């Protein structure tokens, strides 16, 4: 309950800042509010980690690989630390190369904490001058983030104990315990990065975070998140949220996506609206007066029975796994944690829900039958030499599954169908086709329980999905490796 109240309070702060028009403010006031917003976003992430440590629960994990827009991320860092440096009479400069990737697959929370410690130390130990953050691509497309300061640099004694817990030498005249670089090293290991520390030739210290391509590359070829936001034009969306700030924030974001919105303020109103009509998407706050969001979802699923089901996205300040399990058990298709940090995060959560439970407006035949971010991640991990072979093998594996399912249908061999769908569940999940993955799971369960009627109903759908996916991977192979294929 304490975690819920903490997140709800921060959500009000971030929601209010998001709704505020800062354009009329003078540059200094606008900069200060941007700094507050950036710090509040980091406080959300630190709150999650603190509660996870206290309760022993796991941090919530995204259903998809992490995708971070690098440009806006660096802008937020610069806005925050420009104000800090200015308060100490220092300059702060962000220098970024022109060839940086638009998207990276690195956890933004860990990356922000690392940079906060690196830049914070530089600001703390520089009596004058400036702090310089340079971001560029190094050898073999490694992503380099270097922080240079105009302080005294590291002594030999400090270098010897640099990453130790509270490793500052006892005879050091510098303030602090030396905990910052210990935290940086721990977080760098989490995101598979390296830390380099040196004294500058002309004085000052230089601390660099180096991310090899295999650590940041997933998702680099995906279009920017703004281009991938779901188009909700013509779709009816019910929003059940009792907090006025959150309700207005969600309304504005849905209007940006083109949705037709119905707003209600409590659970009873939500249940009445759902009883009157079917919505293309339902957004439900879990903690509402008169009737909880969980009860709203349960009533909706009970009323739908075996008929068409509306996609439901639960919005909650509860992050513990027990709460999440309860929400999913009630029938939610996805969970979005409060506070909602950006339109990108909001849109991605909606896109995942719509992909899991397509509405009549989605059309199962539209778009590629795989998640490009998943595929980019696999190919980045495989490396350029093995990427083509990986795509070939995946296409062949889907072909093997397709032939096995055809043979199992012809021979009425439930054991063969069960074996092939077991493989398909993993393959479909690897490329992010959650619809085909769910169909394969249902077909596997039906074959295991000898439910021939369900097998007969599901098998044509699964075969169609496999054929589409195999053809799409073939097209992707030709498009990505056209020169090699021609040779």
From TrEMBL:
4-aspartylphosphate sites (modified residues): 285
EC number, as in UniProt? 2.7.13.3
Which residues belong to any copy of the Response regulatory domain?
A: 236-353
Q: Which GO terms describe its molecular function?
A: histidine phosphotransfer kinase activity; phosphorelay sensor kinase activity
The record lists the catalysed reaction(s) as: ATP + protein L-histidine = ADP + protein N-phospho-L-histidine
Which segments constitute the Histidine kinase domain?
Answer: 1-215
InterPro entries assigned: CheY-like_superfamily, HATPase_C_sf, HATPase_dom, His_kinase_dom, HPT_dom_sf, Sig_transdc_His_kin-like_C, Sig_transdc_resp-reg_receiver
Which Gene Ontology cellular-component terms appear in the entry?
A: plasma membrane
Q: Which UniProt keywords apply?
A: Kinase, Phosphoprotein, Transferase
* Protein name as catalogued: histidine kinase
